[in-house]
Amino acid sequence: xxxxxxxxxxxxxxxxxxxxxxxxxxxxxxxxxxxxxxxxxxxx
Length: 44
Known about the structure:
This protein is mainly α and 44 residues long. The protein contains 2 helices and no strands.
């Protein structure tokens, strides 16, 4: 669980952050789509 795994973690964190940023931008615009609501639910 060395550098390779750290790279995977970093990529996952980055993807989640980008997803949140997109959602926040969409919410700020005011377009409430069902897709955006589904994305806010944690995918267990």
